[in-house]
Amino acid sequence: MSTREEIRRPARALPFWMSLGMIPIAVLGAVAGGWTVVLLPVYGWVMVTVLDGVLGLNEDQPDTQTPEADLFWYRLITLIWFPVQFVTIYAMIWWVTHTDHLSTLETVVLFFGVGVISGTIGLVYAHELMHQKNRLERWMADLLLGTVLYSHFRSEHLLVHHLWVGTPRDAVTARYNEGFHRYFVRVLRDCPRSAWKAERMKLARAGRTVWHRSNPFWHYAALQGGCLLLAFLIGGWAGLGLFAFQAFVAVWQLELTNYVEHYGLTREYRGEGRYEHVLPRHSWNATQKASNWLLINLQRHSDHHYKPDRRFPLLQTYSEDEAPQLPFGYPAMTAMAMIPPLWRRRMNPRVRAWRRRYYPQVEDWKPYNKGLNPMPRGSV
């Protein structure tokens, strides 16, 4: 276990700042063009996966009683990321719409890389920030979500996913044998209306209608509209299109991650709309060192769902006896998920082994596979 003295040292937090390495790579691609525009995806997927293989696993267990004041250098990277990402996105839009040395293909690949920044880093940081009680951090989360046109994710994640993960009510729990591409269409269709429904129910419990100013969807619309308007003012229709493209790439990466995190893992149905409590075994765990640095310990997802308010430096990891383990970190696993036959060949045996270990009493898995079990009590 790491002592509090070790955790508070800036040097211990420094690896979690590796996300900043993406910014000069983006600038290089914008200025030099050519083959350099592919460096951002290479950094985010290939290099980090190679580092995982070289550096191995991190099974350190931080002291969960560490006071928040000792986590300053960890929190700082998440707090400064919105201005970094904001400037990067809009500076890139200005640059490519006011210069002519990049071809159309180079521009598209460059903005795919910008989407890697706003998805791989921005949305992961937004996820960390939205779970905090501090108003500034929650605002930073909303601003980051606005830059990828996915503001409803906050409502869906906090009011639906964490309550109903592993049940039919949670759209982002990937079903057994469900390929990513089919899953992606499903969550794009279902999650916005699921988030709206959750906020409507929350307002109704307070005696308010959806038209009340406290409905966060008005706030979401204003932020997203402002981001779109600024892209248009800076880069015209081309700038607006490039902004929307990087947002799509970011959302695609987020949902790839969501797909990996809970694929095939379901909570046992116990009758009358009741499901077992969420446990570490209902999320895939990964302890690869470099990818956890880049993704601020998101891969310690079993503990995040078990203790959602725990800040990322203090998340615990679990052994194979306590939680199912991914064979690789998220960069490699999300790449694998894009090829459904390869994904099924690697992951379906792991899901079946998980079922035998934890739920030998369940004889019929078809309702779980198809999301046909009854909705959880209180979720509709």
UniProtKB/TrEMBL annotation:
Keywords: Cell inner membrane, Cell membrane, Iron, Membrane, Metal-binding, Monooxygenase, Oxidoreductase, Transmembrane, Transmembrane helix. GO terms for cellular component: plasma membrane. It is a multi-pass membrane protein. GO terms for biological process: lipid metabolic process. Residues 109-334 form the Fatty acid desaturase domain. One of its GO terms (molecular function) is metal ion binding. The chain crosses the membrane at residues 12-32, 38-55, 76-96, 108-126, 227-252. InterPro entries: AlkB/XylM (IPR033885), FA_desaturase_dom (IPR005804). It is found in: Cell inner membrane. Belongs to the fatty acid desaturase type 1 family. AlkB subfamily. This is Alkane 1-monooxygenase. It comes from Paenirhodobacter populi. The lineage of its organism: Bacteria, Pseudomonadati, Pseudomonadota, Alphaproteobacteria, Rhodobacterales.
